[in-house]
Amino acid sequence: MSRSAPALRPYLPEDAPLLAAIFAASIMDLTGDDYSEAQQEAWAQAAEDEAAFGKKLAGQLTLIATLQGSPVGFASLKGTDQIDMLYVHPSAVGQGVGAALCEALEKIAGARGAKKLKVDASDTALDFFRKRGYVPQQRNTVTVGDEWLANTTMQKTLDAVAPSPPGGHA
Ligand SMILES: CC(C)(COP(=O)(O)OP(=O)(O)OC[C@H]1O[C@@H](n2cnc3c(N)ncnc32)[C@H](O)[C@@H]1OP(=O)(O)O)[C@@H](O)C(=O)NCCC(=O)NCCS
């Protein structure tokens, strides 16, 4: 069966409730092999205050992936060289949505002059990022609410973006 490539668009303030729902569903349905239920709940609670969550999304470079026009995932770039969020709805995993979002952030970061891109990857996403060329740097333990969660800082060297020659010819 052929699958359609996800389309990408920038975040708009009215997307916040839908992205909060994708965030919570993604955590609660996809990370259970790696985190306890208490850890998942603490993590998912970060989107419970929709206004604060929307403010965070708006303060970063946030991209939304859609399939047949419906948002199914999102990713955000913090500063010039850090992937902060990458979440795909459980009903849309395995269709290249995460890869499309990640690739777009890599291109944007590279075009803005970043030489490397970092991510504090969840244990669930570790192999996804490894497959894309991210190399583990260090293990971290972070507090989220009353819970401690482990993640891994990973880093990818971005391809040098060749500047266009003046006049369009080499
Ligand atoms: C990790 C996540 C974003 C992947 O999204 P996705 O849309 O399913 O990923 P894709 O379909 O684009 O997969 C791209 C490739 O990575 C592989 N892959 C995806 N998730 C993987 C995983 N958890 N482990 C190993 N490989 C994985 C796919 O098989 C695919 O391989 P291929 O190119 O050989 O076909 C998604 O599972 C998710 O939202 N997880 C829960 C939230 C989370 O942990 N986010 C990360 C916070 S840092």
How many strands appear in the DSSP assignment?
A: 7
Please indicate the percent range of residues in DSSP E strands (runs of 2 or more).
Answer: 25-35%
Quaternary organisation:
single chain
CATH fold-type name: Aminopeptidase
GO molecular function, one term: acyltransferase activity, transferring groups other than amino-acyl groups
Protein name: N-acetyltransferase YafP
Keywords: Acyltransferase, Transferase
Domain N-acetyltransferase: 6-159
Characterise the protein shown here:
The chain has helices at 16-30, 37-44, 50-59, 97-111, 126-131; strands at residues 7-10, 61-67, 70-78, 82-88, 116-122, 135-144, 147-157. It is an alpha+beta fold. It has one domain (7-157): Gcn5-related N-acetyltransferase (GNAT) (Aminopeptidase). It has a seven-stranded mixed β-sheet with strand order 1-2-3-4-5-7-6, with helices on both faces. A hairpin with a 2-residue loop joins strand 6 and strand 7 (147-157). The longest helix is centred in the first third of the chain and has 15 residues, at 16-30. It is globular. The mean pLDDT is 94. Coenzyme A is lined by residues 26-27, 30-31, 86-88, 93-99, 119, 121-122, 124-125, 127-128, 131.
Give the topology.
Blueprint (H helix, E strand, L loop, with lengths): L6 E4 L5 H15 L6 H8 L5 H10 L1 E7 L2 E9 L3 E7 L8 H15 L4 E7 L3 H6 L3 E10 L2 E11 L13
Parallel strand pairs: 4-5
Antiparallel strand pairs: 1-2, 2-3, 3-4, 5-7, 6-7
Helix pairs in contact: 1-2
Coenzyme A (COA) binds next to α1, β4, α4, β5 and α5.
